Amino acid sequence: MQIYWTKINKIIEEAPEVRTYLLDCPKDYTWEEGAHIHFALEGFNAGDKPNRSLIRHMSISTLPQSNLIGITTRIKEQCSEFKAILRNLEVGNEVAIFKTHSNIPLKREDKNVYLLSSGVGLATFRPLVLDYFERADNVHQIHSLNIDSSKDFLFTNIFKTAPEKKFTSQFVDNRKDYYEEVKNLAADKDGQFYVVGSDEFLVQNIEVLRGQGIKPEQIMLDKHKQQRLKFLSYDLSV
């Protein structure tokens, strides 16, 4: 396993408690849209075993052609050791990245794509939308639905409805409206549904989608194959 040490190039305050850390991209380092990365802080590998409290899986919110690796995360006042250290890092500080993997690249199968996310989970979908804007081949249209109770909606410069691009974007701030809209979107029985958020959020969305007749193979999760099967394998009749 190769570990890349790289520097923070820029820090963007996206919203209260939400920051994007733009990291210098190591030479020949690349990834697919929808990828996640192991993001680690100084000292994580100082002992005999890795200090897992200093490592997190993070989605990459940028595309490779930007030549910057974007990590967008929420840092609350009361937070973990990892987030507390991250909050105090500055431009020029070093961090480590390794083990890049993509579970949800944009499928181009001539269907409608629905992106369902909660809060900062929208960062995972940002590169999918950017990729679609650059090349819309074999995607009929994309609809993004995001729930964020803070009402500080993210990336509104990108996630805004653009009919000419066959892209629509919705933000809601409560669960009732969100799940009603998921049911409406599930009227498309041939659509592809991407879901990103907490495990609880995934389970609730899967339950609603399956209840509307959406098949497991139409639901894409940011999970490894075995985890994905576990989420999608429960019996709705029980």
TrEMBL record:
Top-level taxonomic group: Bacteria
Record-linked InterPro entries: FNR_nucleotide-bd (IPR039261), Riboflavin_synthase-like_b-brl (IPR017938)
SUPFAM superfamilies for the chain: Ferredoxin reductase-like, C-terminal NADP-linked domain, Riboflavin synthase domain-like
Protein name in the entry: Dihydropteridine reductase
Natural source organism: Virgibacillus profundi
